[in-house]
């Protein structure tokens, strides 16, 4: 239950971003690729959470009354985005990209059941090292994938470089409030059973950071929206199975490789005792941050230079300040 609060593998186009400052390796990207392979095997076409997030992201695309001759969709729930695209955004050519070969194969196999006229190609590549030439795309979409990159600002900079001037970047990521119930239950269980805590749930960006990420990456006209979803499960085990099917299980480099049985049972019991509803189900919160940004172009609106105003705040106060 969910509640709201021409087909071929494309070759690499070699032009990747590099940073002088080495980024810390927080996530095990090789493990994440394997997890996404598993997610392709466990694919749930009727996943209401992924469908809702993809729909909301594509609604923002539909609001743009323009044509996008070339587009890239990478990582996350790209197969759900492709299925729900259905002509939104007036895309002519679309490249589907993922680090997981099995996930790309899933998208390719599903393409035969899609009846729109978008020319689609497929590519296996890593969004941390985007193999796209500069200034060659009109649109980039990422739905629930970028929060697994070790250098999120760097990945977003690469996306901006790949866009043509006035190109659009649309992304959604899980925010810091995601799985807060599971974090609490895990922490208490580990303190009780092991006398300390180890990372079990990955760190996520906070809402207050999203706008800064867009600005730091060099996007203009940045926009950030937040939505929150509550999914109810029969048990904590069902929640974990859903996370596996989404490819959202722990991939921290410094993770604890062994989860003691008594700690796992204690986590499930604490989760149930603290958060279970009268019907016996348990809630899980998913906070989603939607980010929109444009590559700079001379036609875009720009802020006026400082001191160019023709009306002062004092004048406004005199005009409206005493009116009720």
TrEMBL record:
InterPro entries: Malonyl-ACP_OMT, Methyltransf_11, SAM-dependent_MTases_sf. Pfam families: Methyltransf_11. Keywords: Methyltransferase, Transferase. GO terms for biological process: methylation; mitochondrial respiratory chain complex I assembly. This is Methyltransferase type 11 domain-containing protein. The keyword Transferase applies. Residues 84-170 form the Methyltransferase type domain. GO terms for molecular function: S-adenosylmethionine-dependent methyltransferase activity. It comes from Kalanchoe fedtschenkoi. Gene3D superfamilies: Vaccinia Virus protein VP39. GO terms for cellular component: mitochondrion. PANTHER family: ARGININE-HYDROXYLASE NDUFAF5, MITOCHONDRIAL.
């Amino acid at each position: 239950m969910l509640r709201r609060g021409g087909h071929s593998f494309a070759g690499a186009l070699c032009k990747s971003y590099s940073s002088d400052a080495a980024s810390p390796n927080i996530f095990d990207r090789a493990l994440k690729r394997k997890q996404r392979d598993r997610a392709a095997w466990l694919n749930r076409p009727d996943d209401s959470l992924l469908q809702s997030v993809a729909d909301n992201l594509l609604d923002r695309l539909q609001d743009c009354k323009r044509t996008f001759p070339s587009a890239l969709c990478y990582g996350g729930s790209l197969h759900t985005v492709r299925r729900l695209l259905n002509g939104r955004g007036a895309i002519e050519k679309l490249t589907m990209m993922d680090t997981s070969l099995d996930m790309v194969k899933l998208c390719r196999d599903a393409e035969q059941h899609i009846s729109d006229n978008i020319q689609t190609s497929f590519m296996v590549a890593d969004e941390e090292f985007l193999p796209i030439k500069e200034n060659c795309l009109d649109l980039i979409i990422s739905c629930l994938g970028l929060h697994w990159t070790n250098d999120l600002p760097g990945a977003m900079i690469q996306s901006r470089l790949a866009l043509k001037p006035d190109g659009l970047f649309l992304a959604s990521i899980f925010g810091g409030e995601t799985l807060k119930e599971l974090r609490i239950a895990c922490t208490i269980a580990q303190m009780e059973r092991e006398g300390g805590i180890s990372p079990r749930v990955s760190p996520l960006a906070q809402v207050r950071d999203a706008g800064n990420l867009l600005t730091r990456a060099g996007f203009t006209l940045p926009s950030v929206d937040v939505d929150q979803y509550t999914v109810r499960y029969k048990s904590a085990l069902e929640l974990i199975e859903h996370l596996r099917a989404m490819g959202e299980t722990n991939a921290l480099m410094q993770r604890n490789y062994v989860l003691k049985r008594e700690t796992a049972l204690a986590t499930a019991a604490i989760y149930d005792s603290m958060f279970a509803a009268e019907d016996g189900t348990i809630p899980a919160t998913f906070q989603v941050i939607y980010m929109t940004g444009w590559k700079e172009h001379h036609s875009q609106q720009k802020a006026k230079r400082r001191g160019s105003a023709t009306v002062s705040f004092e004048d406004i106060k005199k005009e409206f300040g005493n009116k009720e």
